[in-house]
Design brief:
mainly alpha
């Protein structure tokens, strides 16, 4: 056989200039048992393509298996959530709010106690009521006369 023609076909094959018929000639040539040693490295390339065509990558069993998995319905287990679990985030938030308010009141009370200590002594007695002579004229005269009459009347009544 003329190996020059095969070598020319190989050169054209590497330049992507061969037709489908010429590529089939190369495949059939390298499918033979006897290949010259100079062309032996190319045999695996062309025989690999032929072997891959013969072997199907996925068998019919694969398709049947996938279809059976699709058709089989598996029950979905629902997760039961109790009311306590559902409200747990709200409990946590309420606890945080309670802690913040408690700390706020404690800090506010500490600052107000310090503010009372800083008030001068003259201002501390400003809100207290004291007993002494009344200031209002009309009320004070009436009250004083009543108090004076009551203090003297028991002795005069008995006489």
């Amino acid at each position: 056989m003329d190996y020059k023609y095969i070598e020319q076909l190989l050169e054209r094959y590497w330049r992507c200039e061969t037709s489908l018929q010429e590529e089939e000639i190369l495949r059939s040539f390298f499918a033979q048992e006897r290949v010259p040693e100079s062309l032996l490295p190319y045999k695996s390339l062309f025989s690999f393509v032929q072997e891959e065509k013969d072997e199907s990558v996925l068998s019919d069993k694969f398709d049947a298996k996938i279809l059976s998995l699709i058709d089989d319905e598996q029950p979905v287990k629902a997760k039961v959530i109790t009311m306590r679990q559902r409200l747990a985030p709200l409990f946590k938030a309420a606890a945080v709010v309670a802690i913040v308010l408690t700390l706020g009141n404690a800090i506010g009370g500490a600052f107000s106690a310090q503010d009372e200590a800083a008030v001068p002594a003259s201002m501390a007695n400003a809100n207290k009521t004291s007993e002494g002579p009344s200031v209002a004229k009309a009320d004070s005269l009436h009250r004083d006369s009543l108090q004076h009459n009551m203090s003297t009347s028991p002795s005069s009544i008995t006489k």
